[in-house]
Amino acid sequence: PSLWLVVPAAGIGQRMKAECPKQYLKINNRFILDITLSRLLDNAPFKGCMVPLNPADHWWPDSESSQDDRIQSCTGGKERADSVLSALHALAEQADESDWVLVHDAARPCLHADDLSNLIDTVSEHPVGGLLAAPVSDTLKLADDGAPPEVAQTVDRSRLWRALTPQMFRFGALRAALESCLENNQPVTDESSAMEFSGKMPVLVEGRPDNLKITVPSDLALAEFILGRL
Ligand code: C5P
């Protein structure tokens, strides 16, 4: 089966409080989106790549990626899951149901090449698919509903993981799972949760915790530091 790439980039990045969406902030004078896409495309054999964009996006034409003939773009949707689904629909004529599709956040430029290849190697042998994830290192507290909240309980973290991207699933199964969640108003914040809602349990592949999703302003300096050491 072939491997396809979807990089959702249709978010507006409200928490970043910047004048443009966070995927268009620059690190070392390159758009974050361009760094993310080249890390992926230069390190794995993708058959094609689809990037769902916000309808109001006017930065894309200035990106390196828009000039790269390996990359196609389409219109994204209201939530991340809508954007991923619209990318799958845009690829539907080219991809087979049993092909693999790898989904990675535009805002995660610090992906290590060996995490990417570990994920692809492990998931290729798995019946459902899987995701990069990192074991939780902080002690976790469950809060009560007070204001301010007090600790209700300390949670056992030994089996808790943070879900990262990339996440990799069969093309047809992922599309069906996302459609079913959207029809059932089931909240989906990643592809894995859509599969789980269909009763299909993905494999967790341990990835480096420094594969951070740029979310708040201080993440930019951290990402620049990590990228310098990749
Ligand atoms: O907002 P958050 O950090 O969870 O977004 C994760 C990724 O999903 C980002 O790359 C963002 O551009 C993308 N996204 C999208 N369509 C949306 C919302 C987010 O493609 N409607």
Automatic annotation (TrEMBL):
It comes from Marinobacter alkaliphilus. The record marks R15, K22 as: Transition state stabilizer. Keywords: Isoprene biosynthesis, Nucleotidyltransferase, Transferase. Catalyzes the formation of 4-diphosphocytidyl-2-C-methyl-D-erythritol from CTP and 2-C-methyl-D-erythritol 4-phosphate (MEP). NCBIfam families: ispD. The record marks R157, K213 as: Positions MEP for the nucleophilic attack. Belongs to the IspD/TarI cytidylyltransferase family. IspD subfamily. It comes from the Bacteria. The gene is ispD. GO terms for molecular function: 2-C-methyl-D-erythritol 4-phosphate cytidylyltransferase activity. It catalyses: 2-C-methyl-D-erythritol 4-phosphate + CTP + H(+) = 4-CDP-2-C-methyl-D-erythritol + diphosphate. The lineage of its organism: Bacteria, Pseudomonadati, Pseudomonadota, Gammaproteobacteria, Pseudomonadales. This is 2-C-methyl-D-erythritol 4-phosphate cytidylyltransferase.
